[in-house]
Amino acid sequence: MPQHDIIDNRNEKLVEHINRVLASSASARFAVGYFFLSGFTSIAERLQNLKELRLLIGNTTNRETLEQLVEGHNRLESARDALEAETFRTRSEVKQIADDAATRLRTSMESMDQTEENAALVHTLARMIAEQRLKVRIYTKGRLHAKAYVFDYGEVFDSAGKSMDRHERGLAIVGSSNLSLAGVSHNTELNVIVQGNANHAELACWFDALWEESQDFDEALMHEMRQSWAMAEVRPYDIYMKTLYTLVRDRLEGEAARVLWNDDIMQQLADFQKVAVQQAIAMIRQYRGAFVADVVGLGKSYIGAAIVKHFERTEHARPLIICPAPLVEMWEGYNETYHLNARVLSMGYLHANEEGGFHALLEDRKYRERDFVLIDESHNFRHSDTQRYKVLQTFLQEGKRCCLLTATPRNKSAWDVYNQIKLFHQEDRTELPIDPPDLREYFKRIEAGERKLPDLLYHLQIRRLRKHVLRWYGFAADTRRPLREMSAEAVQPYLAESQSAYVMVAGKPQFFPRRELETVEYSIEQTYRGLYQQLRGYLGKSREAQSTRRPANELCYARYGLWHYVVPAKRRQEPYASLQRAGVNLCGLMRILLFKRFESSVYAFRETIRRLLHVHELFLAALQRGTVATGEAAQSALYKAGEIWSDDLFVELQETSQEYSASD
Prior knowledge:
Elements lengths: L5 E2 L6 H9 L2 E8 L4 H11 L4 E7 L4 H6 L22 H20 L5 H15 L3 E6 L7 E7 L2 E2 L5 E2 L5 E6 L5 H6 L4 E4 L2 H16 L2 E2 L1 H10 L8 H13 L7 H4 L4 H4 L3 H17 L1 E4 L7 H15 L4 E5 L4 H10 L5 E4 L10 H6 L2 H4 L3 E5 L10 H10 L4 E5 L8 H11 L14 H9 L5 H5 L3 E2 L3 H8 L1 E2 L11 H8 L5 E5 L2 E4 L12 H5 L2 H9 L39 H22 L1 H23 L7 H9 L6 H10 L8
Parallel strand pairs: 2-3, 3-4, 11-15, 11-16, 12-13, 12-14, 14-15
Antiparallel strand pairs: 1-9, 2-5, 4-10, 5-8, 6-7, 8-9, 17-18, 18-19
Helix pairs in contact: 1-2, 2-5, 4-8, 5-8, 12-13, 25-26, 27-28
């Protein structure tokens, strides 16, 4: 025990002295400027045995102060100028003070942290008020600057259980500390223990005089506590809403401005793009990767560039951008314009060859030390058995973070998505909130129809349609009214594009292109004057109706009838034997397709022929290099290829076309 009566919260903590005195007290009177729940928490256990606690709280017109009455975790940031004391108040003014306090209590109770500790506090307060052991009043005649803790000792008994007289009636602590966690234990405060019966009696009289001049508040406090989350009966709906909020709070849009730098690129983005940047950042930080999968035309590349810039600036990331060869120039431009500090690499380098493409990514320091990877057109990595996939997965196995840009993460199978996720989430065991918590098992259940892919992608993907963007970020061109403020019925003309709507991009209105289709009617016979019959001859007849000899001017559909070009010795061996029936079916389907395109319009027919001619030329070029470009992945690569043959295309065809040998 110290040899002095000074409490400074450095060597001597006020909370320890209060708890020590409460242990031997029957009742207490506290006069404080502000009451904080944090301060009540530190002494709540010792209050259980008190017969009575009278709490006198100072009044202030400051909103934050009254919220502190119950919240207990917000303290005044700085001292306010002392309010001029008002000795007299009208009855209506006094009532208004109490009403305002109750209203603010309600608001502050709603904003309290919903913890078990705070709930227990509220229940303790309510029980003490109900038992009339806690009485609360507000001093309404100005601010209560003084802080005093007056304790009345309880009875003591001898060994026979007989009451004994005590020399001291109690003691008091007077000083600067409010009843708050900081006030009783942390702040640099100065308080003094006041001993002696005369001092105790004088302080008790001082307190009682102020108490009589104060306004009752315990009933109002009790009412608000009964209505609060801590005491009100919880409905299933409340649990549902709390769960829903907990699940989606990281994706709420209101905080975007707080976490994003106002860089040049951010100034170029629309609000819906900024939201995507914020959400993707949160996903990448939590799961090390995310898909930005907005439909075509919503600016995925700008969103991706902003994400790269954010990590480069805030976390000093060293970005690497991997993209198809035709997009390298675009990304080099973004890198230069927005100072992304990134390396840009064509997908064509992600393969093992004699030139060392494999080592260029894995061993060259300018790539090897890159720790944030953006993959544009990431659907090119939906097949895990290709060389480029294996090289990239090896490069990413050290836990590098990824942002994947693609409008079509899923092509034919959910496993397309699985393979892309496995680039940045290479272990099947996962912390994603899915059941079972194993990626491979979960995708097996998706394939079996027992699970849904969107339930998983919700945590890893941002995907919006154009209608969604207009609905929630668009403005009516005629009234400039936000579409999100309109009813579902009123907004339909804008979503259907019968009325114009725009989004704000870089502070300027931008309109999505509007499709305006016109029907043109014509007669095939009058238009083509016999050309139709001539083209029918070129396209040929169905296989069943054909003679053994094909007319010289009829298409043979060679690329779809590969069985006829297999060396005779292997035609009856697999995988070539099945080509005979498949070839018949494919030739028939292509013939029907060409007829439909011709009947649609001359332009459609011409474009189809032009595209097929280009694909056939690419097919022959690959064949001359020893690759038979067949299979779903190879066909997709052929149709997506540019007008010029590229090494990237050949590598992709080589990786995806290994079923048939050109020598056969």
